[in-house]
Amino acid sequence: MAIDAGIAVTNNKEKPDLGEHPNLPKRKKSIVWEYFTVETVGAGCTRAYCKQCNKSFSYINDSKLAGTSHLKRHITLGICQVIRQKNQQGETQDTPNPPKKRPRATPGYAGNGVSFDQSRSNHDIAKMIILHDYPLHIVEQQGFIDLVRILQPQFNPIRSDSVEEDCVALYVREKQNLLNLINGIPGLVNLTLDLWTSNEAMGYVFVRGHFIDGNWNLHHPVLNVIKVPFPLSDGSLSHTILTCLSDWNLEGRLLTLALDKSFSSETLMGNLKGFLSSKNPVILNDQFLNQNCYARVLSHLALDALQAMKETVDKVRQSVKYVKSSESHLEKFIELKQQLQVPSKVDLVLDDTSRWDSTYHMLLAACELMEVFACFDTADPDYRMTLTMDEWKQVEKLCKYLKCFHDAANILTLQPYPTANLFFPEVSKLQVELTYAAFSDDPFLSGLIKPLYEKFDRYWRESCPILAMAIALDPRHKMKLVEFTFSKILGENAEPWIRTVDDALREMFIEYNIQMLPFETINGDDEGDEIMIKTELCPEGSLDDSIYLDDYEFYISDFVGNQQFKSELDEYLEEPLLSSHQEFDILCWWRLNGYRYPTLSRIASDLLSMPTSTVSRDSVFDTEIRKMDSYRSSLSPRTIEALICAKDWLQNKILPTDDSKAFVKMEF
Questions:
Q1: Of the N and C termini of the chain, which has fewer Cβ atoms inside 10 Å?
Q2: What does the alpha-carbon distance between residue 554 and residue 472 come to, in Å, rounded to a whole number?
Q3: DSSP string covering 15-37, please?
């Protein structure tokens, strides 16, 4: 018997001409060829023949290899009549045993030259538990133990307290990597506080950092999860922030703080602002410390609108629930819809009251089918929840403004945390819509929207100047969109608002220049370098204050006295606007143009990373505070923080890999 390319061929048969198929991979000899021979029956066609019954099977056709699975089935499943007959007659001495797969080497066994690593397996299990929110005691469950023993007999089962230590150890290692990243960023950090509750009288404050690194990548990691008494108090909130500042070396490096103000009183917010001012350098008189959560503001407005029409909304909900409660009701509804020739293709949906967008979509679908609902009592006499046409018209008006809130919130769902330049147009657009409705001649619409307008107007007036500064650093708009928007909303009163934004930008520009002063050359010669050297080498207070102040006065005179001097800010604002297009990446633009605007790019880095919302994008439409489940609440605060923070860091891949542990600082 000759063997070629792993195929057995009898002396009475010719070998298949594999030279015509150069692309066919060489195959290891299979046990199946103990039961089959092959024969070339034509150009590019080779068939396999059973040695027992001589039945032929496709094997090679042109350049396609059929494989051996169908040949194995012929032998092992008793399809071969000769083998089946011999088995029935007990003639097994000449009948070969059915083919079996050769045992394969299993990675991880010492016999293969690869040693099993128990500690690495423990690490991977800890990582799995963190990423998928598995309970720590999963490692003690019999099903898990049995599975792992099948996969790797050498694995030693571990206890839940041991895997808890592994999870915390992983968290500590990743925390150090993140701390290295934060220490290397050139700018400031923004914080958001989000409050969760639990079944106990305790809350959990999620502290998230927002910043841009030296390569202009935006990061938003969860920094701390701190257990606090609920409701919040001055002391617990201050303790939370102090813990974060201390853990992450952020004292003096905080730009903004955002939280849901509905959780706190004016007194608490005032005390918090004073506390932060003592821990942080003042920028623009602390205007940035104490921002409200945009998502929560929109949720409160939507809930207020729904509450104002609670009775009518409940009627719609009960009508939808009735139609969807049985197949017969739904069939009657669809049949009536077809009879009335209502063109809508939407399906009725029952809302989830924990999400206001769900209620909006329920009302919207019901409005499209209002004609069917209005006549449904004729098709189903048991239906008695008919709304009047006036009520349906009111629901339509409600949906129009719920859509405004929904569109305004959607920007928070498109990406985890958008850059701050995107919010000024959205917030201002909503302000315009609510203003028109609040002062409408329609008494119903005015009565519904005016209370919402008054609440949102307070948010707009507090937040718009800061958001306007962010949009001014978008080279597609600069101050032009600010001027247009304020003029549209405020009319003849717009000028003071425009001047406020312009003055704030210039003040911030000077403050950042002062911070960078020791690293720049003053007067354009070596004198600045001399001052920097003296500052570094002389003991504190030994440098003549008059020398420093004289140079500083000369430096800022360029900004306040020399009309012919143009700062970076002036040059930037006077350059033509970039054309607007959807693919514009503002962080990429500032990374490429930072050499032209070294000071302004530092400001852009800090302002563009400024968050407007404290919640994650899957909670934007929530109507309730998120709650920590009972299992998580039973864990120690240290373990809860480790599990939640490590999951966030691993999922968002914000940490350095083994090949890249150094982060490049941007030089200005």
A1: N
A2: 28
A3: PP-GGG-TTSPP-PPPGGGGTEE
